[in-house]
Amino acid sequence: MRSVPLSLTLAAGLVFLVVAAGFTAVDSRAAHDPSPVGLPGFAGVQNLDVEALVDHRQGVMRAVSGHMAASAAILLDGAPFEDRISLHGTALAGLLTDIPDLFPEGSAHDESDARPEIWEDFGTFTDRGQDTMERAAAFGEATQGGNQAEMTQAFIALGDSCGACHDSFRF
Amino acid sequence: MGGVVGLGVLLITAWGGDSVARAHSPTAPAGVQGDTLVGVVELRGDPESDDPVMRGAYLARAGNCVTCHTEEDAAEELFLAGGKPIETPFGVFYGTNITSNPEHGIGDWSEEDFARAMREGRAPDGSHYYPSFPYAAFTKMTDSDISDLYAFLREVPGVDRENIPHDIPWYAGFRGSLALWKMMNFEEGRFEPDPDRDEQWNRGAYLTRAVTHCAECHSPRTLSGGIDEGLRYAGTSDGPDGGSVPNITPHETGIGGWSARHLVRYLEFGMDPDGDFAGGSMADVISEGTSYLTGEDLAAIVDYLSSLDPIENEID
Question: What ipTM is given for this predicted complex?
Answer without folding.
Answer: 0.76
